[in-house]
Amino acid sequence: MSSKINASNEGSAKQGYVRTPQNENKLGGTIVVFVIMMALFLGAVYSLSFLTLGNPWPMAVCLGLFALAFWIPQTILGRSDSAGEH
């Protein structure tokens, strides 16, 4: 199972090299992204401890952090633009 090909590639990949799920991300970068996104998610859960009926702002913070924790990996870091790659 080689990732080298003879045909020309389109996109930002190097000539003669295909990005596959096995060689797309480095382990260190993946761990860093996971830790950051988990911190956002846990911050969202922690903000709920300050929620009262008189103060709705912790819920707004929770929704914002929760949305970022899922939106960043799926859109900015994800492969949403690779539907026609293979």
From TrEMBL:
Chain residue ranges for the region called Disordered: 1-23
Highest taxon of source: Bacteria
UniProt protein name: Integral membrane protein
Compositionally biased tracts (Polar residues): 1-12
Keywords: Membrane, Transmembrane, Transmembrane helix
Spans through the membrane: 27-51, 57-77
